[in-house]
Amino acid sequence: MTRKLIHVDMDAFFAAVEQRDDPSLRGKPVVVGGTPDGRGVVCTASYEARKYGVRSAMSAAHAKRLCPHAIFVPGSFSRYREASAGMHAIFHDYTDLVEGVSLDEAYLDVTENKAGLAYAREVAVDIRRRIRAELGLTASAGVAPAKFVAKIASDHRKPDGLTVIPPDGVLNFLHPLPVRKLPGVGPSTAVRLQTLGLHTVGDLYRCDERDLVRRLGSRGAWLAGMARGEDPRRVVVSRERKSRGSERTFHEDVTHLDGVREHVVEQIRGLCEGLQRAGELARTVTLKVRYADFRTITRAATLDRPTAAPADVVPVVEGLLGRTDAGRTPIRLVGVTFSNFASEDAPVLEQLALPFAPAW
To answer: Which CATH superfamily is domain 175-227 in?
Structure first.
């Protein structure tokens, strides 16, 4: 059976929520993220700001130079999570096969849908209508028989667009596209493909797959499959979280150990609150430190038992901090990440002491 998949991607999500909740921001270039007078970065930019070249992940200072009249707002992730929850509630009215990729995008398998609609296009139209009516936001959607095709399609007519690619139209849709449109093809891979004379997806399709594999390894086989419109991946209902992390870039380099420690403890408390809400315990904690000269180091430790209590984690991370040059070398960024999760009701496995010493 040919699958009917939808990729839904909210339009400039964080900025759109800000404009929805503050009418004075509507129609204006809004940048969500750090302030331009510091070391902040752009998280999301409204389409009015994107016209000036403002993009996510660029420095806020650069964004200010590109768009001097941009309005910078710090953002409110509690409101973004609330809007995301509303979006997912709408999705689940049509199918339980929902794979959340991030707060603002998801894949849906509507091969069979709860609304009894005959075509995936009808489902996508109804979902976008409800997102606008119930959440006051807009979303773009792509409908296709393969996940990567649906994702490319959702971006095809942004913002507030809908692109439907039927099974017999996949190749006609893909082949004129530049190779960089394929997922996993970054700037360096795109340049390498172009040096081989492969500029479009159609060029990849016409290329001998064995030659691609010889030059690019397993990635060559994956690219050849996408050029044929093949994607065996299914919509995965639940994704197991691998880690929880928090990073802080300082406006000015921090030179005092107590100052660094204060920020680390604050991050640990916030992360532990997240663990407690999710009913998770973490056993591994990693400290990340970036010095003023951009050298970046990590230090990690595995706890005796999984925990979500700051009191268990803070002393361990303080020990990791002591293995860095904090307090002696200016610090630009500090981050904490929890991993190696267990649920709160999972049994705790104790490490047994073995009756012999290791040979080394």
So the answer is: 5' to 3' exonuclease, C-terminal subdomain (1.10.150.20)
